């Protein structure tokens, strides 16, 4: 039943997807590319939620669903659980993964690395890197959103990579 | 909450009240009927007392006061179990009446869910009451048994006393009294009714006293009625409202009863109930209570009772329970209970009911047991305590009734109804619904009503259970239908729609809609039926048979109405709006419909240098005439009166069955320009409102425009693309509003294009905001203009490459106005070329044949006014009327492949007054070109002679069947002259090339120019008589063709341009060849051999230059005699070097003496074999052979390795010279030979490089700018002279 | 014998209804399934009555009609599975087992990237799988 996929394949697939959306289909419209990728993630999450909740009783409240995402769902997808879950009890949850797999193997464009590290270039490199990372984070965000919304929790998901390699996803549940 | 105020409570307070049996003489009735009232009806309003303030003391000692009270009066004849059939009839009536009543809202739309209160039909209550009444006067319960008996005699009766007596004689009395179910000793009251209209009342009073003497004073009363003489008394309607019969509503009841009559009646009843009945009841209650407590209360009695019951264990249990006479203790307890109940002493009632219920249970007297349980439940309810108990009792009773089978059915129903009411008062609607469901008997009408009520319970339950609501509605609808209560059926189904509407439960939805439709049709309300059946038509999910059924039913209904229906949202067939394509001709006209499908941009690119000021194709001419038309038409399309607008749209049949569609046409409206303002404000929705008006004046519109009508049938799941046209006849503004069609000849469907286009726009977000979709359908019609129609005669579908044909373009102009200033442009001049008007009726190939007196006479191409590709017809040409313009065209299938030729013809209107200045005619043809002869040339310079080249022609016949006869090969340009190397017959043994045959042959090409000047060459290149070689066999008599006359030359220029693009050869000394061939005359059947055709194959820019631009020859003696005894032999040679490039070249010759010239030879061979292979195989080697044969020994000798170098280069071992472009120079060389023999002087090397003066044109050229080439073999034979 | 199985979307829209009876009582079965939705909602809204354990996906017997038994199953994603069976003594284990396999089939069906969520399930393989599950209903009560 449980089918397995080579992790490297997934990694390269993601990279390829992101690059082809950012550089080919919707080049120079990053926000559109982002939305497209997020939509793909949404569908994936939607279907995964269907599958991973098969053998379990229904969730009585939002927290349970979120916990499910943190524990079982995450370990199904990333072979590890979310390391830290915070919430203000007003429908916002912060899921932190201290070593987010899909960023672990990301490297910043060497051409930027090589330039002499005067301030502005390094800064430029910095935000270029974060931008690239951001692109790669639309997909997991979409997955989370898809899973939750399939569980009947409409929400908005955003990611925060202020302290790499940790990555935290912010889930805002639409009241 | 006071149970008395609940619906159930009210019901009980009405239904479970003391019964008074009324016995009266006919005269009494008679007297009352003067008021259209029976006696009881007359009294009934006064039998209910809202507060008859009577103290009651039952079991307990302290009395309580009774406020509400009611008497139920019945004639003795009515006091018996009503028989079932009658009851059923009655119920049926009730339902039918109800059905009639709400006929009005039958057509209105069903109310949305949420307004429960109003959709709950009012007649349920009434119906339920009737249902309850069907089981009254059962002997197993006492509250229907008469408490008292009222004997009424009219004062007109003779000897009324006796009448009183024999009124109450037993044989007329109801069975209840006779068969001992109740006590025959019953409270009697004697009433004398006096009609004041007959006589004064003293006789009556006398009678009364008489009565009092006989029957006792306080049991006798007198009632005087009809006191009013004129009989115009009006009463408030509420009084006898229930008695009003639907038959004659305006009869006014009690017309003769004046106020004191009423008062009298009131007092009478008041007294009767308060002074007699109630006291009688309470004392009876007390008596019974004592008796019961005496016999049954207390431990001893219980034991005795049980023991006694055991005693009669073996008695057969008879559910009818006749074993209990009124005297039996059980009956009396029951009576006690019921009386107590009626006197509202519910505790007492309850206790007694409890008492006997156990007894009945032990006796297995199930019906009575059930009855008692029922009453217990009610008592609990009225006490408003322990709901569980109450419900338990009701359920228990209910089940018990059901258990005893058919006889208990009615009671079960009643019990169920009460139970339901009980549940409802406690908001347990869901449970109530289930009870309703259980009440349902197999008898369908009854269950229909019950199911409907159940459905409403589901609706009212919290939370709502809409699904079940719908389901039960449908169920009850079916039941209704089963017993032809169609209106009810429709009502239920319609409320069910509100559940299923908008869901995807299509099967259920279809079922509901379909049946409603059917039933409406059954009622003859065809319009509504129609609308409902419309919903079902597009049921692609249904099975084929179902679809057929639906469609058939639908059409039947339509036929039954007789008229043709008009449906605004007829979904059959489905119109695929995205497939909409509007083709119209403004200034752009199309030769054939297919042309319109060509990309607009392509036309624009063709037209742009023909049309004046092509700013935007649509409105350019409007700018010129903006005064003629208001600004706002700029964005709306233009069409010309009398020219059709074509609309292509797709019809799709969603069903699996074929449907026939007829008279499909557009809906258009054409308004004069001035009222355009009002019309543009039309929105589609408004338009559909006045749809019928629009159709009304469709006929009148026929004068304004004509519509095409299409009929077709769509097979199952088929889609068809249909073209509809509208042809405006007058100027104005035309709008294509929608599409109308007839479904199988009877139903007219409309489809609003505009609104749907709008929808489509909103649906897929991104569209050009500037021009709304509706505008595609708005047209400004301008007055009719001349329009050119054109086509090309005898343009072949397919042709072999190189095929040269003469075509004729025909242009017609139907209108009488003329057009002028024609221009024409052709997309592929390489394929299609414009001839001169004079060679209109030329014949290929004759026109091309070289006349004897040629060269100067042929017309130069400049006579045609071709300005960058646009051909201007002569100004004098103008086309009008019926006279067509014919113009010659030349076709040459240049290269294999499929080519689409686009031709645009621009023309201007004869009269400047017309709104449009010019129009363009667009033509489009596809031509498939098959490969025929494939000709390629290889040219190599001849080493022996400068300015001479060897041409190798390779011809392959690529066709599958055709065989060709090569006719002539011509080189273009005066500076070349081509000649044969061999006899023609040697080249073409078979005189023709059959399919697939390849052949290569050699020609000699001589350059006629001395070191020529570039510029003159360029000038003369254009039109210069080339030289021709006849390749046709000698026998053949047909002449050579002139490659310089118009079509060939023109095409050749095109080819030059074309092939120039392909091979960007800048270098100047290139030669063009034209091979002219013709298909072999099919001698098998000469009859069919069509007009002689001609093929011309052009090979341009064949470079004469070899790989290196430097060519040279070594000249000198070939054999020399020398006497070696004297000295070694010196031989002078000349090397002529020619620089074929267009740059200055510096050439260096390096000689080197090396042993073994043979090595050099072999080297020279291999190196040289690059591009001079063709050469070596020819002449000089043969000589060598000869020589070497002669002097084999010497060669052998010279090859001996140990021999020293047999000759040396004397003189300069290295020379360098500068060479002007296209010039040659001469260098002396000298060798010294030491011994006789044959020597190969090829052991020198030329290294050259071009010093470019003008680099830029040489960048990217493949041609090398420097190189070294080894020497050619040059054989010198030195003979010893002796 | 199983009369009908159905998949109902979370907006109570039928995603898949298949009846396995010879008689054409499709309409009736549709109605039964449609009605059962009410019961499902009821069960979910007041869980005390619902399946053996709290919030279990298996809702147990929804309601018996005169000649059918209707069982329900509600996934975490608010998709309802309805099973209408004609045989009167059904082992609970069988029904659970049925629903488990049915759910698996459903998940695979909707995981097809070409399946539009919320639209009817038209996949042939799904239909085949379901009919197999239906055929084997009750034969193996184990797991």
Automatic annotation (TrEMBL), chain A:
Q: Which Pfam families is this protein grouped with?
A: TRAPP
For this chain, the family text in UniProt reads: Belongs to the TRAPP small subunits family. BET3 subfamily.
Specify the protein name.
Trafficking protein particle complex subunit 6B
Q: What is the lineage of its organism?
A: Eukaryota, Viridiplantae, Streptophyta, Embryophyta, Tracheophyta
From TrEMBL, chain B:
According to the entry, every stretch annotated as the TPPC8 first Ig-like domain falls at 601-749
Q: Name one Pfam family in it.
A: TRAPPC-Trs85
Top-rank lineage group of the source organism: Eukaryota
User: Which InterPro entries does this one have?
Assistant: Ig_TPPC8_1st (IPR058541), Ig_TPPC8_2nd (IPR058538), Ig_TPPC8_C (IPR057651), TPR-like_helical_dom_sf (IPR011990), TRAPP_III_complex_Trs85 (IPR024420)
> Where exactly are the transmembrane stretches of this chain?
none
Sequence ranges assigned to domain TPPC8 C-terminal Ig-like in this UniProt record: 1117-1243
Show where the TPPC8 second Ig-like domain sits.
802-921
The protein in question is named: Trafficking protein particle complex subunit 8
Source organism: Hevea brasiliensis (Para rubber tree)
From TrEMBL, chain C:
Enumerate the InterPro entries for this protein.
Longin-like_dom_sf (IPR011012), Sedlin (IPR006722), TRAPPC (IPR007233), TRAPPC2L (IPR044760)
Alphabetical list of SMART domains matching this protein: Sybindin
Instruction: Identify the keywords attached in UniProt to this record, alphabetized.
Output: Endoplasmic reticulum, ER-Golgi transport, Golgi apparatus, Transport
Location(s) in or outside the cell: Endoplasmic reticulum; Golgi apparatus, cis-Golgi network; Golgi apparatus
Query: Which family does the record assign?
Result: Belongs to the TRAPP small subunits family. Sedlin subfamily.
The subunit field of the Swiss-Prot or TrEMBL record says: Part of the multisubunit transport protein particle (TRAPP) complex.
Instruction: Return the protein name.
Output: Trafficking protein particle complex subunit
Which organism does this record belong to? Answer: Hevea brasiliensis
């Amino acid at each position: 039943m449980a089918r397995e996929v080579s992790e490297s394949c997934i990694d390269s697939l993601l990279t390829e997807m992101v690059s082809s959306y950012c550089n080919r289909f919707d080049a120079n419209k990053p926000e559109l590319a982002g939305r497209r990728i997020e939509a793909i993630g949404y569908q994936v999450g939607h279907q995964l939620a269907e599958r991973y909740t098969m053998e379990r009783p229904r969730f009585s409240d939002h927290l349970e669903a979120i916990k499910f995402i943190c524990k079982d769902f995450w370990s199904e997808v990333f072979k590890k659980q979310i390391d830290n879950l915070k919430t203000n009890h007003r429908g916002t949850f912060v899921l932190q993964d201290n070593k987010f797999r899909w960023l672990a193997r990301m490297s910043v464009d060497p051409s930027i690395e090589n330039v002499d590290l005067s301030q502005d270039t390094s800064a430029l490199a910095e935000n270029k890197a974060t931008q690239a990372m951001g692109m790669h984070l639309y997909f997991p965000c979409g997955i989370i959103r898809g899973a939750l919304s399939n569980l009947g929790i409409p929400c908005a998901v955003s990611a925060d990579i202020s302290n790499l390699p940790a990555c935290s996803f912010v889930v805002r549940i639409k009241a | 909450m006071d149970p008395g105020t609940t619906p159930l409570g009210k019901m009980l307070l009405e239904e479970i009240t003391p019964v008074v049996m009324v016995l009266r003489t006919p005269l009494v009735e008679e007297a009352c009927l003067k008021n259209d009232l029976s006696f009881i009806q007359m009294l009934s309003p006064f039998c209910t007392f809202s507060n008859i303030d009577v103290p009651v003391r039952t079991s307990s000692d302290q009395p309580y006061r009774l406020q509400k009270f009611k008497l139920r009066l019945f004639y003795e004849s009515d006091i018996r179990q009503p028989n079932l059939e009658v009851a059923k009839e009655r119920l049926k009536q009730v339902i039918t009446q109800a059905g009639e009543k709400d006929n009005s809202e039958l057509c209105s739309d069903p109310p949305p869910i949420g307004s429960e209160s109003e959709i709950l039909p009012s007649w349920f209550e009434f119906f339920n009451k009737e249902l309850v009444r069907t089981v009254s006067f059962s002997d197993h319960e006492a509250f229907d048994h008469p408490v008292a008996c009222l004997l009424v005699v009219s004062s007109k009766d003779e000897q009324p006393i006796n009448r009183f007596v024999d009124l109450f004689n037993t044989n007329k009395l109801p069975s209840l009294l006779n068969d001992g179910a109740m006590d025959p000793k019953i409270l009697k009251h004697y009433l004398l009714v006096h009609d004041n209209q007959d006589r004064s009342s003293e006789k009556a009073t006398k009678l009364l006293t008489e009565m009092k003497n006989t029957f006792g004073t306080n049991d006798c009363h007198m009632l005087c009625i009809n006191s009013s003489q004129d009989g115009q008394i009006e009463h408030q309607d509420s009084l006898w409202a229930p008695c009003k019969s639907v038959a004659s509503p305006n009869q006014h009841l009690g017309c003769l009863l004046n106020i004191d009559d009423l008062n009298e009646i009131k007092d009478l009843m008041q007294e009767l109930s308060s002074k007699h009945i109630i006291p009688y009841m309470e004392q009876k209650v007390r008596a019974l209570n004592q008796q019961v407590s005496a016999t049954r209360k207390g431990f001893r009695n219980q034991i005795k009772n049980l023991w006694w019951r055991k005693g009669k264990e073996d008695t057969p249990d008879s559910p009818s329970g006749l074993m209990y006479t009124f005297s039996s203790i059980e009956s009396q307890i029951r009576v006690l209970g019921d009386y107590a109940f009626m006197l509202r002493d519910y505790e007492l009632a309850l206790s007694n009911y409890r008492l006997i219920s156990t007894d009945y249970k032990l006796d297995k007297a199930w019906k009575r047991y059930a009855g008692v349980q029922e009453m217990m439940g009610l008592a609990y309810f009225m006490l408003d305590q322990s709901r569980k108990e109450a419900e338990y009792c009701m359920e228990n009773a209910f089940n018990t009734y059901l258990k005893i089978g058919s006889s208990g059915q009615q009671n079960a129903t009643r019990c169920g109804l009460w139970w339901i009411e009980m549940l409802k008062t406690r908001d347990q609607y869901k449970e109530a619904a289930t009870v309703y469901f259980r009440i349902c008997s197999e008898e369908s009408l009854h269950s229909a009503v019950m199911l409907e009520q159940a459905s409403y319970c589901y609706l009212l339950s919290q939370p709502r259970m809409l699904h079940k609501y719908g389901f039960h509605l449908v169920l009850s609808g079916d039941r209704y239908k089963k017993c032809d209560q169609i209106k009810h059926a429709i009502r239920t189904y319609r409320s069910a729609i509100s559940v299923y509407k908008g869901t995807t439960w299509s099967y259920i939805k279809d079922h509901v809609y379909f049946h409603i439709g059917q039933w409406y049709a059954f009622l003859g309300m065809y319009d509504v039926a129609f609308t409902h059946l419309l919903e079902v038509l597009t049921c692609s999910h249904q099975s084929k048979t179902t679809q057929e059924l639906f469609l058939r039913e639908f059409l039947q209904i339509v036929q039954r109405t007789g008229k043709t229906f008009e449906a605004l949202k007829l979904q059959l067939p489905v119109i695929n709006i995205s497939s909409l394509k509007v083709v119209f001709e403004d200034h752009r006209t199309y030769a054939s419909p297919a042309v319109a499908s060509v990309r607009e941009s392509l036309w624009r690119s063709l037209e742009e240098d023909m049309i004046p000021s092509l700013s935007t194709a649509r409105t350019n001419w409007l700018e010129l005439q903006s005064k003629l038309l208001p600004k706002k038409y700029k964005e709306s399309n233009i069409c010309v009166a009398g020219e059709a607008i074509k609309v292509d749209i797709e019809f799709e049949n969603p069903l699996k069955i074929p449907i026939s569609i007829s008279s499909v046409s557009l809906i258009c409206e054409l308004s004069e320009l001035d009222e355009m303002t009002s019309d543009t404000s039309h929105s589609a929705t408004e338009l559909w409102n006045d749809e019928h008006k629009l159709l009304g004046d469709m006929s009148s519109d026929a004068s304004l425009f004509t519509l095409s009508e299409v009929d077709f049938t769509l097979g199952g799941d088929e889609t068809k693309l249909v073209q509809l046209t509208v042809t405006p006849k007058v100027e104005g503004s035309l709008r294509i509003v929608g599409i109308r069609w007839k479904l199988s000849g009877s139903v007219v469907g409309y489809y609003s294009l505009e609104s749907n286009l709008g929808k489509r726009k909103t649906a897929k977000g991104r569209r050009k905001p500037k021009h709304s979709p509706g505008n595609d359908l708005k047209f400004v019609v301008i007055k009719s203009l001349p329009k050119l129609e054109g086509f090309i005669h005898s343009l072949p579908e397919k042709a072999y490459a190189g095929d040269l044909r003469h075509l004729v373009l025909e242009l017609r102009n139907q209108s009488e106005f003329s057009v002028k200033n024609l221009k024409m442009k052709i997309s592929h001049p390489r394929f299609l070329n414009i001839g001169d008007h004079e060679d209109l009726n030329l014949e290929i190939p004759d026109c091309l044949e070289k006349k004897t007196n040629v060269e100067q006479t042929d017309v130069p191409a400049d006579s045609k006014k071709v300005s960058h590709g646009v051909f201007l017809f002569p100004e004098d040409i103008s086309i009008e009327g019926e006279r067509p313009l014919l113009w010659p065209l030349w076709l040459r299938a240049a290269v294999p492949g499929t080519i689409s030729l686009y031709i645009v013809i621009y023309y201007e209107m004869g009269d400047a007054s017309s709104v449009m200045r010019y129009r363009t005619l667009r033509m489009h043809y596809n031509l498939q070109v098959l490969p025929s002869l494939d000709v390629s040339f290889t040219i190599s310079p001849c080493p022996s002679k400068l300015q001479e080249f060897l041409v190798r022609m390779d011809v392959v016949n690529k066709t599958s069947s055709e065989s060709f006869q090569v006719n002539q090969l011509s080189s273009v340009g005066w500076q070349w002259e081509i000649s044969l190397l061999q006899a023609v017959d040697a080249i073409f043994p078979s005189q023709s090339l059959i399919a697939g045959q390849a052949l290569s042959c050699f020609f000699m090409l001589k350059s006629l120019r001395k070191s020529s000047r570039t510029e003159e060459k360029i000038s003369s290149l254009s039109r210069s008589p080339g030289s021709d070689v006849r390749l046709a066999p000698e026998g053949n008599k047909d002449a050579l063709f002139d490659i310089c006359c118009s079509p060939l030359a023109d095409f050749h220029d095109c080819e030059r341009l074309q092939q120039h693009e392909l091979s960007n050869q800048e270098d100047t000394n290139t030669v063009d060849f034209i091979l002219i061939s013709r298909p072999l005359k099919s001698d098998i059947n000469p009859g069919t051999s069509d007009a002689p055709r001609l093929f011309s194959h052009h090979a341009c820019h064949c470079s004469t230059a070899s790989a290196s631009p430097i060519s040279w020859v070594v000249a000198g003696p070939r054999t020399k005699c020398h006497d070696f005894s004297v000295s070694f032999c010196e031989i002078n040679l000349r090397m002529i070097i020619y620089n074929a490039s267009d740059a200055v070249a510096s050439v260096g010759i390096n000689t080197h003496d090396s042993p073994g010239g043979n090595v050099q030879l072999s080297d020279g061979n291999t190196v040289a074999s690059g591009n001079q292979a063709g050469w070596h195989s020819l002449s000089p080697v043969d000589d060598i052979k000869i020589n070497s044969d002669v002097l084999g020994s010497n060669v052998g000798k010279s090859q001996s390795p140990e021999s020293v170098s047999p000759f040396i280069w004397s003189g300069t071992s290295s020379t360098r010279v500068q060479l002007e472009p296209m010039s040659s120079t001469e260098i002396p060389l000298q060798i010294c030979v030491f011994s006789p023999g044959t020597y190969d002087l090829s052991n020198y090397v030329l290294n050259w490089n071009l010093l470019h003066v003008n680099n830029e044109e040489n960048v990217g050229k493949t041609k090398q700018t420097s190189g070294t080439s080894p020497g050619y073999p040059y054989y010198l034979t030195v003979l010893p002279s002796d | 014998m199983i009369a009908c199985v159905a998949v109902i979307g979370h907006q109570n829209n039928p995603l898949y209804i298949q009846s396995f009876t010879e008689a054409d009582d499709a309409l009736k079965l549709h109605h039964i399934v449609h009605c059962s939705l009410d019961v499902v909602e009821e069960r979910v809204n007041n869980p005390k009555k619902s399946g053996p354990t709290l919030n279990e996906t298996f809702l147990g017997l929804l309601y018996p009609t005169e000649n059918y038994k209707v069982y329900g199953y509600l996934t975490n994603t608010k998709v309802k599975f309805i099973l209408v069976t004609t045989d009167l003594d059904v082992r609970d284990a069988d029904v659970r087992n049925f629903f488990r396999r049915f759910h698996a089939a459903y998940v695979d069906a909707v995981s097809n990237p070409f399946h539009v969520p919320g639209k009817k399930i038209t996949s042939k393989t799904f239909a085949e799988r379901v009919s197999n599950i239906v055929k084997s209903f009750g034969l193996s009560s184990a797991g």
